[in-house]
Design brief:
Layout lengths: L1 H33 L4 H18 L3 H8 L1 H20 L4 H15 L2 H12 L5 H29 L4 H4 L1 H15 L15 H20 L9 H23 L13 H31 L4 H25 L5 H19 L8 H27 L7 H39 L7 H16 L7 H36 L20
Helix pairs in contact: 1-2, 1-6, 1-7, 1-9, 2-5, 2-10, 3-4, 3-16, 4-5, 4-9, 6-7, 6-16, 7-13, 7-15, 10-11, 12-13, 12-15, 12-16, 12-18, 13-15, 14-15, 14-18, 16-18, 17-18
């Protein structure tokens, strides 16, 4: 019973932190109107949260040793809770952005710390169940966040998407104080402060996250700002690698990547989330911009996929102790690839069931990917290094999602422009289908009472609107096909992973 109380203790704040990465998105218009902010200015409330989150995650292991893990967990929950309160009381967009930075700094450490405590608390034979429990929070947060944010904003106000964190944060602090204990090796340790390493992490990952979030809006490298961000990020990260490999007490332990299973597992995690998270972003856009679904109807179409993930996580949590995790991972990734293939064949006539089914298949596949991949990636890491290993694992997962959204939304926009140009070539009086369509639209407009002088222009407007929809639909097909091919390419990487020495799960994570 005690282990489940500890599991609930660490997952409560982790879940609200994951929800907060997406909850603001649906409330942004309300926030912008309330604080009299422009569109570009208001998006920084999302960007800076992601930036501070990305900066803090990789150094969580180091900070846990510096402060002591329990104390650092309490500090993180407290910072997240207090900054949530201040976000709700923000008086202008600048103050909201400032408080969101601290919210990200407090929340970023919660995922890797929770993962390490869970695997330490549960015995090795139950590590699959522990990771399934953790996976439910990781997967469920992005699904619940937009729905909860929309409902709270519509029925109360946007301030309450932050205020709702406060009672949960207070309960989490009380429970962590009572139930979380540090083993001797995770208590406060005397360490030299690596100021240069910390600065390079902040600069390199901060600039990278801003670049990924703002790149499409700024037309990527056509913008001088994006070029500068890319240059600073690349130089900082290269210097970080050279610096940290020489340090006795590095802020990020990059030597962990010498383990082939750890480095391969992180690469697979990066590309899987690059692919999967992109589909979770693209599907609502497809439903609401092309199919005319409301936010509620889109949620009903995509929601069963989240339930499928929870179902599969509960199954695979037990299977992973009995079957070679590599087989389960290969099966899960194949299911994910098949679901994206189904998405690549959607069209403008797809019904509700045809849209819901690929998302359900994706949900099933996601559950069969997360638990065995975590097991295979971390099973060969020494327990003394597990804090840094989980931090890097979570960082690569989050960066994969950021890269995926940046790459595939850009690809979608470019392919839509390409197909629009190709299709518009057929809008000429000498084209047979054009003449046939025009002859059928004009009588319809006459019946609607449109003046004769306006009928030709009205017919052309309808044809052009349909052309834009068709071009965008084909662009979605192209984008999903690209994701499908990427998933097939990474399948062979699974064979580079080493089978865990003990089938019951990875060693305790500290």
């Amino acid at each position: 019973m005690e282990k489940w109380i500890i599991a609930l203790t660490v997952m409560l704040p982790t879940l609200i932190e994951i929800i907060d990465t997406s909850v603001v998105n649906v409330s942004l218009d309300h926030i912008r109107g309330s604080l009299s902010a422009g569109i570009d200015e208001s998006t920084w409330a999302i960007t800076m949260y992601l930036v501070s989150n990305a900066v803090i995650i990789p150094i969580t292991g180091w900070l846990s040793r510096f402060f002591g893990r329990k104390l650092y967990l309490l500090i993180s929950i407290a910072i997240f809770t207090i900054s949530s309160l201040l976000c709700g009381f923000s008086w202008n967009i600048q103050s909201l952005i400032f408080f969101r930075i601290f919210q990200g700094l407090g929340g970023g450490a919660l995922q890797p710390i929770s993962q390490s405590i869970l695997l330490e608390t549960f015995p090795p034979r139950q590590h699959g169940i522990a990771m399934a429990f953790f996976g439910i929070g990781i997967m469920f947060g992005p699904i619940v966040g937009p729905v909860m944010g929309g409902w709270i904003t519509d029925n109360w106000s946007w301030h309450w998407i932050f205020f709702i964190n406060i009672p949960i944060g207070i309960i989490s602090i009380i429970m962590a104080t009572l139930f979380i204990k540090d083993p001797p090796y995770m208590e406060k340790t005397k360490m030299r402060m690596d100021y240069f390493g910390l600065a390079l992490v902040a600069l390199g990952l901060g600039c990278l996250q801003i670049l990924l979030d703002q790149g499409q809006r700024e037309d990527w490298f056509a913008s001088g700002q994006v070029r500068w961000l890319a240059a600073v990020s690349i130089i900082s990260l290269i210097l970080l690698v050279f610096t940290e490999l020489r340090k006795k007490e590095p802020v990020i332990n990059l030597k962990l990547f010498k383990d082939i299973s750890f480095s391969t597992g992180n690469a697979i995690m990066f590309f899987i989330f690059l692919s999967m998270f992109s589909t979770l972003v693209l599907l609502p856009i497809y439903l609401q911009t092309l199919m005319g679904y409301t936010s509620t109807l889109a949620g009903l179409a995509l929601g069963p996929g989240g339930l499928a993930t929870i179902f599969s996580l509960l199954i695979v949590g037990r299977l992973v102790t009995k079957i070679n995790p590599k087989y389960i991972l290969f099966t899960g990734l194949s299911i994910v690839a098949y679901s994206v293939y189904l998405m690549a064949n959607l069209d403008l006539n797809a019904n509700f069931a045809a849209i819901m089914w690929p998302r359900v298949v994706l949900g099933l596949g996601m559950g069969f990917v997360f638990v065995p991949l975590t097991n295979l990636t971390l099973s060969h890491i020494r327990k003394e290094d597990m804090g840094g290993a989980t931090a890097l694992f979570n960082l690569l997962r989050n960066l994969g999602g950021s890269f995926g959204v940046a790459i595939f939304t850009t690809l979608l926009a470019r392919r839509a422009q390409f197909h629009q140009v190709r299709l518009i070539e057929h809008l000429t009086p000498f084209d047979g289908p054009y003449q046939w369509t025009l002859s059928h639209i004009q009588p319809f407009l006459h019946l609607k009472g449109i003046p004769d002088a306006l009928v030709p222009q009205g017919a052309l407007g309808i044809m052009y609107g349909n052309l834009i929809r068709q071009a965008t639909m084909i662009a979605f097909n192209d984008t999903f096909h690209s994701i499908f091919i990427l998933l097939l390419v990474i399948l062979p990487l699974i064979f580079l992973l080493r089978k865990p020495e003990r089938m019951e799960g990875p060693p305790p994570m500290h």
